[in-house]
Design goal:
Number of domains: 3
Bound molecules: phosphoenolpyruvate, magnesium ion
Strand content: 5-15%
Shape: globular
Number of helices: 23
Strand order of the largest sheet: 1-8-7-3-4-5-6-2
Helix content: 40-55%
Structural class: alpha/beta
CATH architecture of the largest domain: Alpha-Beta Barrel
Number of strands: 16
CATH superfamily of the largest domain: Phosphoenolpyruvate-binding domains
Distance between the termini: 45 Å
CATH topology of the largest domain: TIM Barrel
CATH class of the largest domain: Alpha Beta
Length: about 575
């Protein structure tokens, strides 16, 4: 009998500051077919003990069982999810799929490989058919994964069905995996890969779910083990002791107390710093408490189309924006045009042959290859705003991601204004744009600093890879210098300069940014109370001193320590900074 040793604590990179305790639910990766099992004649298990007929029976049984399993899940799932699961069950039960697999086995393929290839063939056919068929094709991937796992005798892959609040743990979670989670039942997210500004981290922050990424070894903790996930310390502890349980409880209590303060963001001496929310869908806006959020500082519109196979027309986009704007109660709303590419893959904007997608045609740059995408989106936005009654018309700002030059800012501003957008801005997330901030500000009404990408590009460090997290740190002096330069350029011309990267949610960083002249801070809503609390306990002059100190630091740690040393000791203690 093998004895599994559970490491008492697995460490990674924490996202946010909260913590949770719950049993672990493991997300199993897609099965890999061993090369020996690809042919019947090879020395695979099935090949040794069965003939072609048995292999066909194994493939057919697996597909039928998968169809049954999905149908069962469909019956229990609500609304749209149930429909998708039922459609997937239908695809698994499709006799054509079984026929394709059978033909392959008769040609000597092993059953797992035959199902794998048969599914790939059907997926290719659906993709070629386009439209709704193409959208369905990716659902077949889970039919493949489940059927192959059954044939190989492996546990079911993918997201577990959560029966209670659980800590969901995976090697990695795709945006689609994360979207499929029953979030009511997710106490925390843990991944072995991914970086602190990757998609899983962003979604976790957005929802206030404790999250630890780069937690190497976490998937080795057995399913069902009670674990404590502490995002502030970046740890996952199996079988937490009483002291740890108490710490987690205390943290939750402090969070609740901080959330009771809903006054507008301002320093102790009343210098206003509007606190805005980052969102990805109209639903998220509807969930916000208008009393605590002064507007939307970043609406990541690409999130709406993560699972679209085809480019959304203006008619398909407009209702989404109308719903979003209706939910903002007239407050300031900064909408970002599609930031497709690299860490935000959208099927209809995919570039086939990019070796370095983060340096390729992403964000605003898609205007070079698919200008109609921006055109349709601006048309949808313009039409949506115009359709609202003037008195109910929210303060809509529209900005472009991944701007690198003043000329790009000029073209974007021209296009947006042609569609009736009044307040036009760009994100500063490429070092070249930060260095050219003054010239860019000549072209637009505002800028918003995306410190996630600004850190990635300044430090030449992929934001999705966690091995180099120390370089990706927004406290890196080079990143701070570019943020400060941008803030200075905006202050000189009295134009708004916000920060909407994840760094704005760090209370110490929020103080430094305010001292640099940043005029608003946008973050995932659950991070707002701690930032509001920090601002309220520091005067603008103290924020300026903090900014000056961090800008002379030689390293990220030195900068963070300098801010901590100058911040109010009680606030540092209370917020665990
Ligand atoms: C950023 O880069 O900081 C940003 C806010 O945009 P995103 O994280 O969506 O790339
Ligand atoms: Mg960005």
């Amino acid at each position: 009998m093998s004895i599994v040793t559970i490491p008492p604590t697995v460490s990674g990179v924490g996202v946010g500051r909260s913590a949770a305790i719950a049993p672990l639910a493991l997300v199993r990766p897609a099965p890999v077919i061993p090369s020996g099992a690809r042919r019947l004649t090879a020395a695979s298990d099935i090949a040794q003990r069965s003939d072609t007929a048995q292999a066909i029976a194994a493939a057919e049984k697996a597909l039928a069982e998968v169809a049954g399993e999905f149908a069962e899940r469909a019956a229990a799932a609500p609304g749209a999810l149930g429909e998708v699961l039922l459609a997937t069950a239908g695809m698994a039960a499709d006799p054509e799929l079984a026929d394709l697999a059978r033909a392959r086995i008769e040609n000597g393929q092993g059953p797992a490989a035959a199902v794998d290839d048969a599914v790939a063939e059907v997926m290719a056919m659906l993709t070629a058919a386009g439209g709704l068929f193409a959208e369905r094709s990716t659902d077949l991937r889970s039919v493949r994964d489940h059927a192959v796992a059954r044939i190989l005798g492996l546990p079911a892959p993918g997201l577990p069905e959560l029966r209670e609040r659980s800590v969901v743990c995976a090697v990695d979670l795709s945006p689609a995996d994360t979207a499929a989670l029953d979030l009511e039942k997710v106490a925390a997210l843990v991944t072995e890969s991914g970086g602190p500004t990757g998609h899983t981290a962003i979604i976790a922050r957005q929802l206030g779910i404790p999250c630890v990424v780069r937690a190497t070894g976490a998937t080795g903790i057995p399913e069902g083990t009670l674990v404590a996930v502490d995002a502030a310390n970046g740890t996952i502890t199996a079988h937490p002791d009483r002291a740890l349980v108490e710490t987690v409880r205390h943290r939750a209590q402090t969070e609740r107390l901080l959330a009771e303060d809903t006054a507008p963001g301002a320093t102790a001496d009343g210098h206003p710093v509007p606190l805005l929310a980052n969102v990805g869908t109209p639903h998220e806006i509807e969930q916000l408490d208008p009393a605590t959020v002064e507007g939307i500082g970043l609406f990541r519109t690409e999130v709406l189309f993560l699972d679209s196979a085809t480019a959304p027309s203006r008619d398909r986009q407009a209702p989404q924006y109308a719903r979003a704007l209706a939910a903002t109660n007239g407050s300031k709303t900064v909408i970002r045009t599609l930031d497709a590419g690299a860490d935000k893959p959208l099927a209809f904007a995919a570039q086939d042959d990019e070796d370095n997608p983060a340096l390729g045609v992403r964000g605003y740059r898609l205007v070079r290859t698919q200008p109609q995408l921006l055109e349709e989106q601006l048309a949808a936005l313009g039409a949506t705003v115009r359709a609202l009654e003037p008195e109910r018309r929210p303060d809509v700002w529209v900005m472009a991601p991944m701007i690198s030059t003043p000329a790009e800012a000029r073209t974007f501003a021209r296009l947006a204004r042609a569609h009736g957008i009044r307040t036009v801005g760009v994100m500063i997330e490429v070092p070249a744009a930060a260095l050219q901030a003054a010239a860019i500000l000549d072209e637009v009404d505002f800028v918003s600093i995306g410190t996630n990408d600004l850190a990635q590009y300044t430090m030449a460090t992929d934001r999705l890879r966690g091995e180099l997290t120390d370089l990706l740190d927004p406290w890196q002096p080079a990143v701070l210098a570019l943020v400060a330069a941008t803030a200075r350029a905006a202050t000189a011309v009295r134009k708004p300069v916000g920060v909407c990267g994840e760094s704005a949610s760090d209370p110490l960083m929020a103080l430094a940014l305010t001292g640099m002249g940043v005029t608003s801070l946008s973050m995932s809503a659950p991070a707002l109370p701690a930032v509001r609390h920090a601002l309220r306990h520091h005067s603008l002059a103290r924020c300026v001193s903090i900014a000056e100190a961090v800008l002379t630091a030689q390293s990220a740690d030195e900068a963070r320590n300098a801010a901590r040393a100058l911040a109010d000791g009680e606030v540092v203690e209370r917020l665990g900074l």
